[in-house]
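Quick start: read one record
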Amino acid sequence: MTQHHDATAKSKPVLIPLTGVVLGVTMFLISWLAADAPGVGLVMLGIMLGYAALMRFGQRFESVQVLSQDPPLDERHALIQLHALRAAYFAVLGVALIGFFWEISLGEPGAFTLIAAVGGATHILATVILRRRL
């Protein structure tokens, strides 16, 4: 293991939570200043602060270690990440498709239509590229 890799691994327990805090503060500010909805912003900030705290102080739990390791520590962690990513993909896909069908049934394509189109195009493109590279 190289010295650079050691430094990167040691900074990850701080980098990921810090990113969560920055995202939470950004969500709060946008909700409050752009949409005049500070309550919604506070909820989003609370969620991101909870996530940041879990990622920072929960490193002794294997599930948290799996979430915060890139590259994965071993083949088992890589397989866990692959299955978790697949589950998340199908959840987002399901919501996007249901929203898409709802929007087209109203005759008003919108955000779900865009999300479904981007997701479908990305899946096709990634499949073509990965088939050639792997």
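Residues 20 and 52 are 5 Å apart (CA to CA).
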